[in-house]
What we know:
Shape: globular
CATH superfamily of the largest domain: Aspartate/ornithine carbamoyltransferase
Helix content: 25-40%
Number of helices: 8
Distance between the termini: 45 Å
Enzyme class: transferase
Pathway: Pyrimidine metabolism; UMP biosynthesis via de novo pathway; (S)-dihydroorotate from bicarbonate: step 2/3
Largest sheet: 5 strands, parallel
Radius of gyration: 19 Å
CATH topology of the largest domain: Rossmann fold
Number of strands: 9
EC number: 2.1.3.2
Family: Belongs to the aspartate/ornithine carbamoyltransferase superfamily. ATCase family.
Function: Catalyzes the condensation of carbamoyl phosphate and aspartate to form carbamoyl aspartate and inorganic phosphate, the committed step in the de novo pyrimidine nucleotide biosynthesis pathway.
Number of domains: 2
Amino acid sequence: MENRSLVTIAEHSKEKILYLLEMAKEFEKKPNRKILDGKVVATLFFEPSTRTRLSFETAANRLGARVIGFTDPKVTSSSKGETLKDTIMMVSNYADIIVMRHFLEGAARYASEVAPVPIVNAGDGANQHPSQTMLDLYSIYKTQGTLENLNIYLVGDLKYGRTVHSLLMAMRHFNPTFHFIAPEELKMPEEYKIYCKEHHIKYKEYTDFNEETIADADILYMTRVQRERFTDLMEYERVKDVYILRNKMLEHTRPICVSCTLCPASTK
C-alpha cells in the first residue's frame, strides 16, 4: 500500500478535499464495499475514544478489512517503556494502515515519518483532527449546498479544540468569515490567528454568546470544554458552562447548520 498519510488537513488542496467529499457521497449511498479485502487496519488509541474509534472500525469492517489494535495503552508494552517509534514500527509489521489517537501534539506527524505504512491522525492532543474535519465539511456541504463564502461561528473551547483548528485550516480554500466566541481562557491560540492572516481568512472575536451575536450565522459549531485538557480544575469549573446553546437563541437566526462536536457531553 502506498504511504499516503492523513496527518493534517492543511496538506490537502481544494481539489483533493472536494474529490474526497464526492467520494464520501458515493460511499454513503453504498457503504459496504470490499475494497479493503485482505487488508489489516490497526487502531492505536493512546487516549480514550468511543465515537472516533468505532467510526474507524465500522468503516474498516464495511470495506472488508480486518481490525487489530488497542484502546488502553496501559495494556501494551508502552507501559513497560517501549517508545512510540518502536510501537509504530512493530505494528507496521502486522497492519497495512494505522489509525492513531495520541495525547501528545505532533505524535501523528512523528509516526508518519517513521512508519512504512500510512498513518491516519485520529486526534493528537490539542493539535489536529483531520478525519473529523472531513466529516464536518461533508455535513456543511450537505446542509448548505456549498462550502463557499460562509459565516462560521466557532463557540467554546477554541484553545484545546483540535477539531476547530483543523476546520479553520480546511476552510482556507473557500473564503469563509470566522467568528471566534470563547472566554479569555479558551480563546483561539495566536498561531491560528496568524494562520488566518497569512491565508487571508477573515475573522472576528467575541466573548459574548447571545442571540444577537449569532444572528448572521450559516454554521454554528459548538465545542465541549474538555476537562481532560486542564491541569487546573478550578479553571475548568469557571469556564465549563459559560456557553450553552438554547432553542430560543435560534428563533431569529437564518436556517443554519448546528454542529455540536467534541462529545461526550460532560454536563446536562
